[in-house]
Amino acid sequence: MPLKFAYAGSAAHTHDAYARSAGYLSMLTSARHEADALVATGVVAAGALALAEIGPGNGGRSRAFLDRLADRGLPCQRYLALDFSETLLGLACARLARFAGDRMSVDSHVWDIEHGTSGSVERWRVGPGPVVGCLLGHTLGNVESPVEVLANIHDALRTGDVLLLSVALGAAGCPAPDTALAPYRSPEFRDAALQPLLAAGLAEADLEFALSWRDDVVVGEAVLRRSVCLDGVPLPAGHRIRCFQSRRFRTRDVIVAVGEAGWQVRDAVQAPGGTHLVVTASWR
Q1: 52 Cβ partners below 8 Å, 6+ apart?
Q2: Distance CA 139, CA 6 (A)
Q3: Cα 271 to Cα 94: distance, rounded to the nearest angstrom
């Protein structure tokens, strides 16, 4: 089951609670680092910043990111939120609109980046200036095919536009790093991961939540404690349902994937500690 279903419908509210937790924030690079990486490239002139952010979550980190850009002299004038979950978009945009007031327009559009490109950015765009497409907070690590997603984003933008991407890096030589698994060992994350299954009719008492580390991927599975029938399909006790996967990357692999998707890498900066990477790329 793709992780995006943990953000949709009723699950958006459990994700909102998880996104406020210390565990969630600990596994992401700081919004300050992401903003500083964009400013350092000088790709966008002050007074002309238009951002299209894919996967803004509940809007909390987006606000911190926008705050830092403004502090660095690059305030955003126009902001577009894009997500698979209409419910989560509503939560994020309400939070950002309260923060922005009249200083920044806030718009949104539903887009599943794993299923093709979208014309939403082009319809929202005003004038010939560049749009910065943001895929932050390690969203890329949660999709099934990172290269396909990067290509879908590329096809939604055009010449002159910019990609700002942040990902979590893997811990080389460590078969089961506690630092990778620790943020997921919380009641908040368990609730968020299992919510789609509960919404589908399974009982929480029938589910055990299991975490594992497989080839630089954190995998979360629901294990059935007893046999059940889901949508007319019998499932035996012990059956495992993958709730999510969260991939960790190598720096070189990220740069190669960005290039294969049609982007020209301009800069790649590791966060302090070497646990995260922020990439800035131009459309080509």
Answers
A1: 79, 80, 82, 121, 124, 131, 132, 133, 134, 157
A2: 13
A3: 30
What's the one-letter identity of residue 204? E
> Residues 93, 106: contact at Cβ < 8 Å?
yes
Local mean pLDDT, 10-residue blocks, the chain (284 residues)? 48 55 60 94 85 93 94 95 92 92 94 96 95 94 94 97 94 62 85 85 93 90 94 92 91 96 96 89 94
Phi and psi angles of residue 121, each rounded to the nearest 5 degrees, phi first: -65, -40
Indicate whether this model's pTM tops 0.70. Answer: yes
Sequence-ordered list of residues with C-beta below 8 angstroms from that of 188, at least 6 positions apart, any chain: 14, 17, 18, 20, 21, 23, 24
Distance CA 7, CA 70 (A): 29
Using the structure block, give the residue that is written with the tokens 């299923």: 115
Beta bridge mates, 252: none
